[in-house]
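> call design_seq(struct)
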């Protein structure tokens, strides 16, 4: 009888763990090192709305260790969640309004009726990212009478630095909307819905940011595969620390065309290879599906790039002739709304980067899993090679990023690369922990001290980090 009870207890614990793993956790204790911050946020909420918040929603930023610009091509990525995050204090609004406040001095307050939510993708202000997450849940769950919410938002993720501050804001808003409306939605569905609803503001990403935000585990990086979404934990090497350093060049994916244009270039590259190889090219929109149809490993697909896509830039007229389409038909088949006026496409180099980066990501995970002697050196080489491909083939680096990568390598990193799409933003470096202080000091001196603008930002844009937990709800009893 005792053994049966013990067995039942084990089964109950397993079921409880599976439930925790499936849904965002609801916790009663704010971490000790965050109590002061949450208490201040609670006080701000109380001063603004006259009552304490009902709960807090929290969503982390992320850093992608390797796998740049491949998720929207169907390939896996290897990010980790940051300790830096977006936190929202949330309470009910009896007037059926969304009353949104941000603790940042340069962010305006915003109020709208819950039934009249409009998102302007031409002017991506902070509150519109909230509205994306809100709409994603309301429409995805078919909520006919959503509740009103009072929200005070606080963030510690550097904005426009390639660390997913905007996606964390969307995810946190979705989490707050879910909990306010008494719903229970799985982490996987939340991640999928948030990826889709970011398109409201014009960002056509591949799902990495949302997946790591909801599915991250503390102390682990994560290998994420798509279609279907599948994750596995990756243990990072002992004795190394990842350091984030901002180039101090800001980039807003929703406010510029670079990101969405690369999505289109890889789509057209997939269609060119498919047509040349005798496939029904209209069925193909991502490079991974072409690779699978040709039954060829990603690394070997670079030979198809050389054979099927000439290395010079393609013009739109040339593409119309190649596919036998009018300009309008090409826009419909292959372009996105904000790229229809583009006329020059670097298909060969974009495809070569994607296939090479997909192979590097797989090798990075395999190297971590095998953990052979001195494998940190292999990981560093993969990171370095990734940056060179981003710079030379994908053209998503800028001079400041290249300068910072060089400074980090000279300061003692095992490997350094741009992260978070590029065109500004951050560099991630893998640094021997025993050399961490020396590394940070040298980067401060050799990069940040060069200009007053950089020096003014260094305290919040150069930091060591470790893998943090995923999104969660707090209903704290310890504030």
């Amino acid at each position: 009888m005792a053994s049966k009870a013990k067995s039942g207890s084990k089964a109950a614990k397993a079921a409880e763990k599976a439930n925790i793993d499936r849904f965002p956790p609801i916790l009663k204790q704010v971490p000790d090192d965050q109590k002061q911050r949450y208490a201040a946020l609670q006080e701000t909420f109380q001063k603004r709305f006259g009552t304490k918040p009902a709960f807090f929603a929290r969503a982390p930023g992320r850093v992608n260790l390797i796998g740049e610009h491949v998720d929207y091509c169907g390939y896996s990525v290897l990010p980790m969640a940051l300790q830096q995050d977006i936190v929202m204090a949330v309470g009910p609004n009896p007037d059926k309004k969304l009353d949104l406040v941000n603790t940042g001095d340069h962010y305006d307050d915003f109020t709208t009726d819950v039934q009249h939510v409009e998102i302007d993708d031409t002017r991506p202000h902070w509150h519109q990212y909230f509205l994306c997450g809100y709409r994603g849940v309301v429409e995805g769950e078919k909520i006919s009478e959503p509740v009103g919410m009072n929200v005070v938002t606080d963030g510690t993720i550097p904005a426009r630095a390639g660390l997913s501050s905007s996606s964390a804001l969307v995810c946190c808003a979705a989490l707050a909307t879910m909990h306010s409306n008494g719903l229970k939605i799985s982490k996987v569905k939340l991640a999928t819905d948030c990826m889709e609803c970011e398109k409201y503001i014009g960002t056509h990403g591949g799902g990495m940011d949302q997946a790591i935000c909801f599915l991250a585990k503390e102390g682990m990086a994560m290998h994420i595969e798509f279609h279907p979404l599948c994750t596995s934990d990756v243990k990072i090497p002992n004795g190394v620390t990842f350091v984030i350093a901002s180039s101090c060049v800001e980039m807003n994916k929703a406010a510029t065309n670079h990101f969405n244009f690369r999505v289109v270039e890889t789509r057209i590259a997939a269609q060119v290879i498919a047509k040349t190889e005798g496939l029904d090219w209209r069925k193909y929109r991502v490079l991974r599906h072409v690779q699978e149809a040709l039954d060829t490993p990603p690394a070997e697909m670079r030979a198809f790039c050389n054979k099927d896509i000439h290395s010079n830039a393609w013009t739109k007229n040339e593409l119309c002739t190649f596919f036998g389409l009018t300009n309008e038909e090409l826009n419909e088949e292959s372009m996105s709304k904000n790229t229809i006026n583009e006329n020059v496409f670097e298909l060969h180099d974009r495809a070569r980067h994607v296939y090479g980066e997909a192979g590097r990501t797989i090798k990075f995970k395999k190297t971590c899993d095998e953990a052979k002697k001195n494998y940190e050196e292999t990981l560093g080489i993969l990171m370095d090679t990734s940056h060179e491909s981003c710079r030379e083939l994908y053209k998503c680096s800028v001079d400041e990023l290249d300068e910072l990568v060089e400074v980090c390598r000279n300061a003692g990193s095992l490997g350094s690369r741009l992260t978070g799409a590029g065109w500004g933003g951050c560099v991630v470096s893998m640094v021997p922990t025993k050399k961490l202080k020396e590394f940070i000091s040298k980067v401060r001196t050799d990069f940040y001290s060069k200009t007053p603008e950089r020096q003014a930002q260094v305290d919040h844009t150069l930091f060591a980090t470790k893998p943090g937990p995923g999104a969660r709800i707090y209903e704290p009893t310890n504030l």
